[in-house]
Amino acid sequence: MGSSPRKDWDTYFMDIAFMVSTRSQCPRRQVGAVLVQGKKLLGTAYNGAPMGVPDCSEAGCMIAEEYELVQANGAEQVIKKQRCVRTIHAEQNLLLFTDRADREGSTVYVTDEPCWTCANMLANSGITEVVYCRAYPKDSGKVQAMMKQKGIAFRGIGPYSPPTASAEPLV
């Protein structure tokens, strides 16, 4: 029986982020994040309501609508955004449940490109790199520009396929 090639570190840690995301009860998007220093896993987190509070699957999403004025092709354009305000984002939970000393010089692997708020928090967290899988176009341009300004490596992983469940349960 031949062995399959060993996964590279980016794939390995992104696989873990996707597995962590399966803990989320968010019906809109399940997001997972992991904190890595070198090749050592230091923390995991996913999006959801605060501990002890009914989550979106139990109480429904708490949607807020926001409007943002952006410059597009030399003209101002108003963009409407909808977001759930019940949910703490995976990146925010990761920062809440890890120590600053562990974050210094570390990498965050996250299933989704961080939103503007999470990017700002990550920028002040001590991390030096963010690796994500799925794009978040609503905030992408300004997030990428800010990360570049801060000197934080910011990159999408690709090509990448999230792990799938095993076809046969282990006995």
UniProtKB/TrEMBL annotation:
An example Gene Ontology molecular-function term: dCMP deaminase activity
Pfam families associated with the record: dCMP_cyt_deam_1
Organism superkingdom: Bacteria
Keywords (A to Z) from UniProt: Hydrolase, Metal-binding, Zinc
InterPro entries named in the record: APOBEC/CMP_deaminase_Zn-bd, CMP_dCMP_dom, Cytidine_deaminase-like, dCMP_deaminase, dCMP_deaminase-rel, Deoxycytidylate_deaminase_dom
Residues spanning the membrane: none
Gene3D superfamilies the UniProt entry points to: Cytidine Deaminase, domain 2
GO biological process, one term: pyrimidine nucleotide metabolic process
Cofactor(s) this protein requires: Zn(2+)
Record-annotated active site: E91
Domain CMP/dCMP-type deaminase per the UniProt entry, residue ranges: 8-154
Residues that bind Zn(2+): H89, C115, C118
GO cellular component: cytoplasm
Family label: Belongs to the cytidine and deoxycytidylate deaminase family.
Official protein name in the record: dCMP deaminase family protein
Source organism per UniProt: Saccharibacillus brassicae
Classification lineage: Bacteria, Bacillati, Bacillota, Bacilli, Bacillales
